[in-house]
Amino acid sequence: MIKNKKTGQIIVISAPSGAGKGTIIKHLLENNKKSLWLSVSATSRAPREGEQEGINYCYLTKEEFEKRIKENYFLEYTKYADNYYGTPKKYIKEKINQGIDVILEIEIEGAMNIKKLIPEALFIFIMPPSMKELIKRLKMRGTEDNEKIMKRFHEAYKEINEVTKYNYVVVNDEIDNAVNKIEAIIKAEKCRVDRIEEVYLDTKEEEIHELIMNGNFDNRGIGEKME
Ligand code: 5GP
User: Fold this and answer.
1) For ligand 1, atom 9, which residue shows the shortest CA distance?
2) 184 CA to middle of ligand 1, Å?
3) CA-CA distance, 92 to 154, in Å (whole number)?
4) Whole-number Å distance between alpha carbons of 140 and 85
5) Atom 14 of ligand 1 has which residue's CA nearest to it?
6) Which of 46, 100, 104, 223 is least buried, going by the fewest C-beta atoms within 10 A?
7) Nearest atom of ligand 1 to the alpha carbon of 56
């Protein structure tokens, strides 16, 4: 009766650092291996302990990053906490055409640039349960000194005030709960009427007439005549 768009969609996920976005996305990818793909960004910041090239980020020097900006390599890029971050254009279109949803895990300025370029993308903001909890998570992560944490906290504070620019907000009070909510949002988005390409009648007029006049129905299925 309806033919839906088969293409994947762009899902932009933003959150202040320390809100638990990384863990949520990890779970989302594990649960939806075939239908979700995470775009790996490039950055000029140094890798944190445990981070891997090509998995967490593609790590570039500031000069390399600036060269790629000039080469029009990025769909969007920004400077955040003194470092460059950017989404490579490569692969995104390919994944979308294969029907795979693409997650862009980016900060708000980048998200708003994507909104201008691709207004139909889905924008989800992950909110920490409280500011105290956010500071606790940043401190416990132990990857930044106090000065850097302060900088990130101020960025986080600014970002939280921009939440209404997104389509959905999910509070990360408990990981499984937050993951379930995001999966539900993605499912619901697939049912939006603007994804319909065609509405058609799947049964011929004569058949409809015959079914109405002479069809006997039981719970074995539509159109089966009872013996
Ligand atoms: P982190 O240094 O904690 O990994 O990332 C800092 C911020 O940069 C996070 O909010 C993260 O989502 C954002 N970010 C990561 N990659 C990109 C990107 O490609 N573009 C933009 N605009 N932001 C990004």
Assistant:
1) 107
2) 24
3) 31
4) 24
5) 106
6) 46
7) 4
Residue whose CA is at the smallest distance from ligand 1 atom 22:
110
What is the token pair recorded at 96? Answer: 């979308």
Tokens of residue 174, six digits: 């408990």
What is this structure's pTM?
0.89
Residue nearest to atom 5 of ligand 1 (CA): 17
Long-range contacts made by residues 153-156, C-beta under 8 angstroms, separation at least 24?
Answer: 155/16, 155/17, 155/80, 155/81, 155/107, 156/16, 156/17, 156/18, 156/19, 156/128
Tens digit of pLDDT per residue, the chain (227 long)?
999 999 999 999 999 878 889 999 999 999 999 999 999 999 999 999 899 999 999 999 999 999 999 999 999 999 988 899 999 999 999 999 999 999 999 999 999 999 999 999 999 999 999 888 888 888 888 888 899 888 888 888 888 889 999 999 999 999 999 999 999 999 999 999 999 999 999 999 999 999 999 988 877 655 555 44
How many angstroms is it from 107 CA to the middle of ligand 1? 5
Residue-range domains of the chain with CATH:
2-38+99-199 (3.40.50.300)
For ligand 1, residues with CB inside 6 Å are 17, 41, 45, 76, 78, 80, 85-87, 105-107, 109-110
